[in-house]
Each structure stands twice: as C-alpha cells, then as structure tokens.
Amino acid sequence: MTLMKLTTLCYLMTISVFLQAQSIHPNILKKPWKAQWIAVPDEPAREYGVYLFRKNVELTAKPDSFIVHVSGDNRYQLWVNGKMASHGPARGDAFHWYFETVDIAPFLQSGNNQIAARVWNEGAQTPLAQISLRTGFILQGNTPAEEMVNTDTTWKCIRDSSYSPLTPNLIYTYYVAGAGELVDRRKAIKNWNTVNFEDSNWKNAVELEVGLPKGVFEWENGWMLVPRPIPPMELTVQRFREVRQTEGIQIVKAFPEQKTAFTIPANTRATLLLDQSFLTNAYPTLLFSKGKDATLSLKYAEALYVDEGGTTNWKAQHQKGNRNEVAGKRFVGREDRIISNGSDNQEFNALTWRTFRYVQLQIDTKDEPLVLEDLYSTFTGFPFEMKARFDTGNPFHNQVIDLGWRTARLCANETYMDCPYYEQLQYIGDTRIQCVVSLYNAGDDRLMRHAIDQIDFSRLAEGITMSRYPSSLQQIIPPFSLWWIGMLHDYWKYRPDAGFVQSKLPGMRQVLHFFNQYQQADGSIKDAPYWNFTDWCEDTGWYRGIAPVGKNGNSAALDFQLLLAYQTAAELEKNLGSPEQAGLFQQRAAQLQQTIRQKYWDASKKLFADKPEKDLFSQHINALAILTKTAAPTEIKPLATKILTDTSLAQATIYFKYYIHQALIQAGLGNDYLNWLDIYKENLAQGMTTLAEISDVNNTRSDCHAWGAHPNIEFLRTVLGVDSGAPGFKTVKITPHLGTLTTASGSIPHPNGMIEVRYKKDKTWTAEMTLPKNTTGVLVWKGKEMPLKAGEKIVLKGLL
C-alpha cells in the first residue's frame, strides 16, 4: 500500500465512522439484533488467534448510504472491497461492549462486493486494559436494506496461521500491554479481503449468540452492546527522521525521510537504528520484496539503555542517560518479527499501534537478496486539537508546553492511559490531571466524560472503584477513588453539564460509604485495606508509594485525602444533590478536620506530621493541610515556605507536585510558580520529548506519563490567571500571577468560545482581554475586582 493510499484510507476511515456516529436506527438499541456473534468452528474461545471472515454481497447499484454496526472481541478490522472501513472496538467491559457505526457506502460498488473482517484474540497475552469474553465478530445492518450483510452461518471464515505471539523480552519492568507479532508470510493468505478471492475451501462460521443491546432481555447475556461514545482515533502518516546507526549495510542517503528502496544481499545480517526524533504512538508499516525465508525484526523502544557492563544492580541496569545519545548503549524493546515468502510487494502493518522513539530493524537474509522498499508509521491517538496558546517570550516555557502536550496526547487513545508503552491503563490518579489538561489545552471534554463513566462502571459491591479501568485484573487504590470525586468536581466546575455530574452522585456516596466503614469514633481511618498509594516518594517511611502509617494504623495521608473528598462531596451535594447528604458530609469533614489537628499537628515544628508518632514529615501532608483549610490562616504562609525550603520533608515527585503547587498558589505564592519548574528542565536536559513517570529522569521506567503535564494547566490557570468563576464556567475569574514577567499572553478554550488575554509592563501594566459571547467575568488585580463584559475586548491601562 503506497503512502498516498494509506493517507486516503486514514481519511476515509475517520470520516466514515464520525459522520455516521448518530445514524442508529432505534431498533438497534431496543431490540435483539438479527445478526449473530460468529466465530471460526473448532477454534479455542480464548487462546491466541487471528481469524479472517468474509461475505459476498450483490448490489444492483452503488448506494448513497449503507450503514452498519460492527464489533469484535478482542479487536477487529472491517474491510470492504479491499479497503479498511473501520477498526475497533473502543475498549470497554462486558456490560458496556462498544460497537462502531459506519457508513460503508463510499467503499461499495454496483455488482459484487466483498465485506471482510480480520479479528484477533491475544489470549494469555491480551493487554491488561482489554477485557474479553471470547473470540467473536458481529456485523448488523442498520435497517432491513442493509441486513444482507448481517453475520450468520453464511459468512465464510478461516484461521490465519501466519500469525503467532512474540513475548516481549522486557526483563526490567512490569509490562502488560500485549505481545509482539510473529508473522510468517509463507503461510499468509494473499488477497483474502478482495472480491475475486476464492474461498470455497473456507469453513462456514458458527453462531455464538444473538447480538444484544444493553438492557434487552435474553436468557443469558454475553456482550452487552452500546454505541461507541467517542470519535475515531487520529491517523496521520509520519516519516522517521534519520538512521542513527547501521551494521552490515550501506543505506541510501535519502532514507528514511523519503521512500527509497535498497537491497540487502543474500546471507547477510543488516541492522539499522532509526530515530523518530520524538516519542510517538504509531502503526509501523514495512514494505519489502524478494528475500525468501529472510527474517525481518522490528524492535521498539522509548530510549536506549546505558551499557551496565554486566552488573546485576537493578538501578544500574535501568540507566538511560540522555535520550538523544545512542553510542555505547543497548537496545531493549518490544518486537515484531516477519518471515519473507520471497514475493514482490510484501507488506507488514502491525495489528495494534506501538510506542517508540527508536526502532531497530534487523534483517537476516538467506539465499536470496531482499529489497527493503520503505519503512514509516502512522501516528494514532485521541483526536485532540491544541487550541490554547501561552507566550511569555521565554523559549523554555514553550518547550514545557510542547513536552506536556505531546505527553498528554500519547497518553490518550480510546481511554486515558498512565503510559502508552508499558501498561496503557486508565488510572484515576493520572486521569484526573489529564482531564484538566484536555479542558485547558483542547477545550474537549469527550474523553473526560468517558473516563468518568468507565470509572463509575468499575465500582465493586463494597462501593469503591477500581484504581484503573477498563482492566481484566482487579486492582484497588482507595485514594484514587477519592480523586475520582475530585474529577466530578472538576467537570462540574468547567463544563455546563450539571446533569451528568448529578447522575454520578450515587456512585460518589458509595465510595464514601466504603471509607466510612474504616473510620474510627474520632473519624480517623484505621487499617484501611488494599494499596493506599499516594505518590512514588522514596523517602524514609514510604513503601511502594504508600505514605507512612502509624503503629495504630492511622495515616495522615489517608485522613487528609478523605477530608478533601468529604469537603468536595459536600459542595456537590449542596448544589446538585441532597441537602441531607451535604450536611452529613460536612459533619464528617468537620470532625475529621478536628481529629487531624489533634493527631498530626506538631506545635514545636509547626508542621503536620505523616503519622501520630510525629517523627516523619512530608511536603504532601502539609500541602493537603493547606488545600483542606486545616491549617489556620496564620499558619498557611509559613507552611508554604517550609514546603518550598525545608529539605528534611519527604519530597513529592512530579505527579503529586500538581497538588503541592495548588497549595502554594492557594497560600499566596502564585507569583513564584515559574520558579518551580526544575524537573522540566531536567527532562529537557536529558533529551526527552515527553515527561517521565518519576522525578529521577535518568532512572525512570516510563518516559511518558501525562500526570506530569500540569504546567499545561497552570501556565493558563495560574500565570495568565484564567479560571472558572462559577459552576459550568458560567463566568470567568481572571487572577494573573505574573511574577517577574514583563509580558505574557495566551488563549484559553471555553465552552462558549475562546478567552484571549495579554499583559504587558512598561512603567505600568496594560491588560487586554476578550471573553466569549454570553460570558461575563471579573479581573482580580492586586485584590481589586474589575468587571469584564461578554464578547468585548477590554483594555485596562495604567495598572500598578
């Protein structure tokens, strides 16, 4: 497939799915489908396998519209007359199994047409974020006019034996994002998805069960089908920047930035190290000819590892150093491997996307030369569009914005993800920050709503949510359930959709009921179960991210996070829910706040301690004391100063600095915000193009964790000062914190349009701002409030 054809295909796939997303006949959602889930006969239900399905359809004329609904387990690709029309489904769970709605009319023709699908199950190596019941495929026409394509026993099918799993050799870390692909092209079925392919030796599909929309009665429910609530992912072709190393081959100079063929002689090992120049999520495409029985290996890595010289020391093995450097380093990464069948125009397209900056291509030829024709990739991700702008005249600030935005984009696909390379799991702690980045940078709340829904779906009978969802393996981090309540508040604050938040209040109450079971008579939590992660801090008393716990089972970190959740929940109940519930949560918050002061306040040190023994102290606890207003007004600024200057305090990592910075800003130190960005300087100094998981960027596992992208919020919310002034962003409150800047400007997306601000200092300040239509606001300048009108450019000169 040529680059031009792939670009056109990506465009058609996006348009086909997006324009028809709402073209669903009512019966599709209210009645059992006439289509059946189908599978290949005599194949295992849950083991690894790639399967092909096809059906011939005769049309008297090319239709203007031909809408179908399609899904699969684990994943599918839908092909029409040799062109891909859709792929999915979006990740969900068995109670919310998503189907795509696609208009395939652009791909159809008068006469014979071929509808085909590739479906695969990764078996034991299925990504942890992928829930699965068994291998299956379903296609349903939208109306009787399209039902000729419905899946049933008339569909032909076969196992594609050219595919087998390739277990990643990632010995250094926790990895749950799926296997690589071993593709033996000698066993491949050529042109299986085209009209003229002969399928007489294929089997007829077996029916598994009828397609059931969620909520429709049947004696047993398998996949509960619901419409995909998010748009298709972006697909954009991209070229590698350069070849950094070669061995055993001389390459053509134009490669890889241009499509340029070259030959690898027979009985040769050729190795190329390609550099994308930035981290990306993408589908790799490899084009080649000849080279019968040759093996082509593609390995993918975020960065190369420093050669540890044979040491068994864990930290030494994990050293990455500067990500731009490749000399003297070793390659460790996920792998795909292809065996050539010797024909012309062979093509490898990975079934699922890969994450990489570096790709190592190793080719081992046998008795025949191989022609490498091209290698490129197609970026994919949630179709966020950067709408915000921030400019201070300082290039470093632009670099930080770019780092944060690329990281946020790579950690957003069909769900938010903690990291794209290793886990691809939607953890609440990460997701809360990612959601606000999306709002402030793109003004797009679609994935945020989806995340809130999915986390709500994950709640257990105990009331608490899972820490990450979708996930086929249960994991519970109780504080993350509390941050989900914070997500509800964020959505209520910034989006004019109170009804959505209101629908989540029952789940919020259940979460708090879980915690209430572990509260003692004084309100403090004792011996809370599960993994009570707070931050990846490694100071004394912290273990696997868990803040210190006293001998009596009490922890200031848990008590403070619960207090903040009670305060947040009380505000939501007061405005959207039950006055009685609001009063109950306020009462519990007041009691807990009093207990916290008694248990953890150290009058001699004038700090809040991590546990009742008052022998350990952290930035985290004292920041939470400010955020919950547990610290007295006279204590706030001294606490903030100690958070910044007292190095004996356990130090927060890049994740929890989101809350540390909020506390410092609340304490009145917002004008110093631009001085708190050293960790971002370290990321840049190490050649990183995304933000690392932890603050030790030389020894981090993941090079891409969007929980660190909070400057993409605070540059706009704190420095430029643009924040919501009322629920739903109904009004705007602008409180700039310009520090030593003499100029700053930017644009911030708002539900009603764009907010534009500009500040410039000569002898005095001039402030210019424009609010969207139907949106009023206020400028707070040195404690004084000045009203701002809707839809007008306002210029305020001579501000001191």
Summarize the structure in words.
It is a single chain. With 800 residues, this protein is an alpha+beta fold. The protein has 5 domains: 3-160 and 185-232, Galactose-binding domain-like (Jelly Rolls, Sandwich), CATH 2.60.120.260; 235-381, Sandwich (Jelly Rolls), CATH 2.60.120.260; 385-486 and 677-717, Glycosyltransferase; 518-669, Glycosyltransferase; 743-799. Helices cover 25% and strands 27% of the residues. Strands 10, 11, 16, 17, 18, 19, 20, 23, 24, 25 and 26 form an 11-stranded mixed beta sheet that branches. Strands 5-4-7-2-9-12 form a 6-stranded antiparallel beta sheet. The chain has a 5-stranded mixed beta sheet with strand order 8-3-6-15-14. Helix 5 (428-442) packs across helix 16 and helix 10 packs antiparallel against helix 11. The longest helix has 22 residues, at 579-600. The chain is globular, with a radius of gyration of 28 Å. The termini are far apart. The model is unreliable at 1-21 (pLDDT under 50).
- Corresponding CATH superfamily of the largest domain: Galactose-binding domain-like
Separation, N- and C-terminal Cα atoms = 63 Å
Mean pLDDT figure:
94
The CATH class label of the largest domain is Mainly Beta
Q: What is the number of strand segments?
A: 37
Tell me the CATH topology of the largest domain. Jelly Rolls
The percentage helix is: 10-25%
What's the alpha carbon Rg, rounded to whole Å?
Answer: 28 Å
Largest sheet: 11 strands, mixed
**Helix count, DSSP H or I runs of 4 or more residues:** 16
